[in-house]
């Protein structure tokens, strides 16, 4: 397993070195874009009285539905959360991921820069930020960010991750982490493959979380005790 020489603290310094003088305005613009894009969405907005926790749960759920997830709805819900409290759990990370999945890479990059400032240990934010940097042509930064991000992911993606004792019991997440490491070592000429494999890590992690949540719910409904 590859253990990179990059740390979350170092990655944070890389991001901070860039001027953020316009980031506050940029984030407001991003959030407004989210509301605009949601107006034409086929998914109905969540009820106005849902509350921060409800909007967060609904927005996060879209990532656990695989290809059936509605990113327009996720943006609407997570936009509501970040307007109320931009530090609420990993709402900024999820909002950045939603924009990434919609192909709005520059907006995603701006939001994820905020996310890693809020929580420098957020491995998903770092991973998606690195992908967004590659997508907007910041290849050197993107590769450096992803090398550190994949190290963080490899450290935390084990039994007990997100309170799931049987996390990644089939090793699918670990498989794509290893593939991502292999491609990252090849350098910029493997950019396309790096993006594909790192995106798959995120997909596998969503699938694993969805599986474990459904299994836990099944056990609760049937009073199952291992």
Indicate the mean pLDDT: 82
| Oligomerization status of the protein chains | single chain
- In whole angstroms, how far apart are the ends? 31 Å
- The total of helices stands at 10
Tell me what portion of residues adopts beta-strand conformation.
under 5%
Protein architecture, described:
With 226 residues, the protein is mainly α. Helices cover 68% and strands 0% of the residues. It has helices at 8-16, 23-39, 51-61, 71-84, 91-101, 105-118, 123-135, 139-156, 172-186, 191-221. Helix 3 packs antiparallel against helix 4 (71-84) and helix 5 packs parallel to helix 7. The longest helix is centred in the C-terminal third of the chain and has 31 residues, at 191-221.
List keywords for this structure.
mainly alpha; 68% helix; globular; disordered N terminus
Summarize the structure.
This protein is mostly helical and 226 residues long. It contains ten helices and no strands.
What is the secondary structure topology, with strand pairs?
Blueprint lengths: L7 H9 L6 H17 L11 H11 L9 H14 L6 H11 L3 H14 L4 H13 L3 H18 L15 H15 L4 H31 L5
Helix pairs in contact: 2-4, 2-6, 3-4, 4-5, 5-6, 5-7, 6-7, 7-8, 7-10, 8-9, 9-10
